[in-house]
Write a structure and sequence with these properties.
The structure holds two protein chains of two kinds. By secondary structure, chain A is an alpha+beta fold. Chain A is built from eleven helices and 21 strands. The longest helix of chain A is centred in the middle third of the chain and has 18 residues. In chain B, helix 2 links the parallel strand 1 and strand 2. Chain B starts with 5 loop residues before the first helix and ends with a helix. The chains are: A alpha+beta, B alpha/beta. Chains A and B meet through helix 3 of A and loops of B.
């Protein structure tokens, strides 16, 4: 009985995935955790490690076809004879022991495999397949629970120290998986019947929002007409569009703005930015200061770090995981800075720098893209002075920091001075918070930001 | 019936057992005329006479050695160590005689060695020992450590009635502690050796402890509930040998995190053995590292600030528990 390989759920709100490429051909031998295929989703591209060792008996979903999460995409024969694997398997290296005893056959096979690892061609795919899981921090209990619940550890964000996956993370994931709504495209594919179909049949590709799967690649495609151009958006653009409409429909947005005197921070940055970069290897900007202040605000107004649920409950989140919007070549992503309140200013600067680098290099993991509880957006880098952001669902609020600009300001004693000023715009879900809560939060943020003196200890 | 202290409960147990069974007798330094260094045996000489309440020379090997001999002859001696630190002088009689006799000859050795252990009373390096690990390691001897007044009496009675050598470790800090005063049942009772007790139930973490540390752990557990919303289960082991593995494993299986707290030094202590048992039996049930809070591997200090720094306390337990909870 061959084992069926299913389309994995790559991220919280992802309902479908597209086969980017098959890294194995039918008939190939695959090891457990060896990469089988490349999966493309709205949010992320990832290699799919094989859950079992065996012979890839049948590929059920072709390259560029999109199927819902959970759909069968391939079949692997676990009991397949190793010798059936094609001769592509490299010959034993010089160190491999000769076969002395039939009992040792299995051990020899293992040695062959490890010998092949250093052999170049397959090494890279194998390495990426296993590396992520090995590197993941996880408790022994969580590892066992994940195995029992058949959970891909890479799909889980840990909430322990350093992102470690613990018991509660697995249990929360299991609970969420049970509650998860049926994927959008499910009715189209009728996934309830595949077991009745002959094992080797190929299910028809799903068409979700016909434009998406009809387009052979996620790239922009254009159709020429008189004077206009019709563009089919990329998957990411579509995902953003869907999210924005849903957010505006879900949360009654209210926006409130404070003005902050950033003069001391600005002067400190002017003076120390270069040195800091040379010393630490990463830069520091206004963002860590704002994040730090936001954490303080959330501590004081915990409802800013919550979600309104469909059954009219409010979920307060104990971890402050800040999403940070990063513009990349392919579009906007909002990776997560976990437990932001645990870092110093320098620590935040380092996290921001590494996450942004990962985002721009298109190397974000699934973990990077889930678990955020509040977003700090920084359109100020584009010189904007007032922005009204849309909430990243299911958060309670989003904060935009606009450009720090010099303005004449009336200060104490009615004197006029040139100060570095910045507007902070907070959009909040009016179901959860009222103006008083939002204003109080902003006031805490402002007090914190204005509390810095000329000398700032960022460590 | 008025309430009694931990110390008075021990005196009651000795008196009642001597009344119940003529084979039971007490020997040790100053236990007779003086009534014991801590007055545990006050009044016993008058009640039972000098043949059953025997003042001995300052020679622990002789005290324990004669107790072993008497036990072999059918008596049930209670050998008091004036301070448990000096049990080291009788080490040979315990780990070469008392604990092996039944194994070698089939003759039981029903005896109790008891005395004040533990620190926190500014007793310095020779009057503060927690010697449980040495004897816990030796097969053939039971080791019990009562933490409450009820248990002190019930466990001592069980120890006296046990047919094996039992080391009964009293904690001198608890002797007259007002909050440990308790009204005890008027009727005869024993607390069985080998049974741990859950002093507080919880879901988030198990704390394994014994002796005076039980009270520090309970205080810490309360703080963790109030300040961190953590439900901590506190298990008082009561008996170190034999260990109540069933209760321990059951609890840790449920909470998945375990903190071990003892006053004895860290290396090779009771916690080391507990950690090994848990790692062997429950590895895949652990959601965090088995964590120990114990005294540092140094001799017991005399200076009060050093003693305070040396002993485990609520703050140290809280810090370790919080780290483990966040793991």
């Amino acid at each position: 009985m061959p084992t069926s390989i299913k389309m994995p759920r790559l991220g919280e709100s992802v309902a479908e995935g597209t086969i980017g490429s098959w890294l194995k051909n039918e008939g190939d031998w695959v090891e457990r955790d060896e990469s089988l295929a490349e999966i493309i989703t709205d949010k992320i591209n990832a290699e799919l490690p094989s859950p079992v060792a065996g012979r890839l008996a049948k590929i059920l979903v072709k390259v560029d076809e999109t199927v819902p999460v959970g759909a069968d995409i391939a079949l692997i024969e676990e009991n397949a004879d190793v010798s059936a694997s094609p001769p592509a398997e490299p010959a034993p290296g010089p160190d491999a022991a000769p076969i002395e005893h039939p009992d040792r056959t299995h051990a020899i096979v293992m040695e062959n495999r490890s010998a092949s690892d250093g052999n170049g061609s397959r090494a890279s795919t194998r390495a990426t397949g296993t590396k992520v899981e090995e590197r993941q921090r996880i408790s022994p209990l969580a590892r066992r629970l994940a195995r029992e619940h058949d959970i891909d550890l890479n799909a889980i964000a840990g909430t322990g120290v350093g992102g470690r996956v613990r018991k509660e993370d697995i249990l929360a994931y299991v609970a969420q998986r049970q509650e998860a709504p049926v994927p959008v495209g499910a009715s189209v594919t009728a996934p309830s019947t595949p077991s009745i179909e002959p094992a080797y049949s190929t299910p028809a590709p799903v068409s979700v929002g016909s434009q998406v799967s009809a387009s052979p690649s996620p790239a922009f495609t254009t159709v020429e007409e008189e004077g206009i151009e019709v563009v089919t958006p990329s998957r990411m653009r579509l995902a953003i569009a869907e999210h924005m409409v849903r957010s505006k429909r879900t949360s009654p947005h209210a926006t409130t703005v404070v003005e902050i005197d950033m003069t001391n921070i600005a002067r400190w940055l002017e003076k120390n930015k270069e040195d800091f970069k040379n010393r630490e290897g990463y830069s520091i900007s206004y963002v860590p200061f704002v994040m730090k202040a936001v954490c303080e605000g959330i501590r004081k107004f915990p409802y800013m770090n919550s979600s309104w649920t469909e059954d009219n409950k409010i979920i307060l989140k104990k971890h402050i995981n800040l999403g940070m919007a990063v513009a990349t070549d392919v579009g906007l992503v909002v990776p997560t800075l976990y437990d932001a309140d645990q870092y110093t200013l320098a620590g935040l600067a380092k996290q921001i720098s590494t996450i942004a680098q990962r985002a721009r290099a298109n190397k974000l993991t699934i973990q990077d893209l889930q678990g955020s509880t509040f977003v700090v957006n920084n359109p100020g880098t584009f010189g904007t002075i007032l922005s009204v952001p849309i909430i990243n669902q299911p958060h309670a609020g989003i904060l935009s920091m606009d450009a720090v600009v010099k303005r004449p300001v009336v200060i104490e004693d009615d004197a006029i001075a040139v100060r570095h000023m910045m507007y902070l715009c907070l959009s909040f879900d009016h179901r959860i918070l009222d103006g008083a809560g939002a204003g109080g939060f902003l006031q805490t943020v402002r007090t914190k930001l204005q509390s810095y003196s000329r000398e700032i200890d960022v460590y | 019936m008025s309430s009694v202290t931990y110390l008075e409960a021990i005196g009651q147990a000795i008196r009642e057992e001597m009344q119940r069974d003529e084979a039971v007798f007490l020997l040790g330094e100053d236990v007779g005329t003086y009534g014991g260094a801590f007055k545990v045996s006050a009044g016993l000489l008058e009640e039972f006479g000098s043949e059953r309440v025997i003042d001995t020379p300052m020679a622990e090997d002789a005290i324990i050695g004669s107790a072993v001999g008497a036990a072999l002859m059918g008596m049930r001696p209670i050998a008091e160590m004036q301070f448990i630190d000096f049990i080291a002088c009788g080490f040979d009689q315990i780990i070469n005689m008392a604990n092996k006799m039944y194994w070698r000859t089939g003759m039981p050795v029903p005896m109790v060695i008891r005395g004040p252990s533990g620190g926190g009373v500014k007793g310095g390096p020779f009057h503060s020992a927690s010697p449980e690990a040495w004897f816990f390691h030796a097969p053939g001897i039971k080791v019990v450590v009562p933490s409450t007044t009820y248990d002190a009496k019930g466990l001592l009675k069980a120890a006296i009635r046990d047919n094996n050598p039992v080391l009964f470790l009293e904690h001198k800090l608890l002797y007259r502690l007002p909050e440990l005063r308790e009204e005890l049942p008027t009727e005869d009772y024993v607390v069985p050796i080998g049974k741990a007790i859950t002093r507080r139930q919880g879901e988030d973490m198990t704390v394994l402890t014994y002796g005076a540390m039980v009270h520090q752990c309970l205080k810490a557990a309360q703080a963790l509930e109030q300040e961190d919303d953590l439900q901590v289960e506190v298990i008082d082991l009561r008996s170190l040998a034999p260990l109540d593995k069933e209760t321990i494993l059951e609890s840790v299986k449920h909470t998945n995190k375990v903190l071990i707290v003892h006053e004895d030094t860290l290396t090779g202590g009771i916690g080391a053995e507990l950690a090994a048992i848990l790692a062997e039996d429950l590895f895949e049930y652990l959601d965090g590292p088995i964590t120990r809070v114990a005294a540092p591997d140094a001799p017991f200090p005399y200076a009060p600030p050093l003693e305070a720094a040396y002993l485990p306390n609520v703050e140290k337990i809280l810090a370790a528990a919080r780290k483990l909870a966040a793991y």
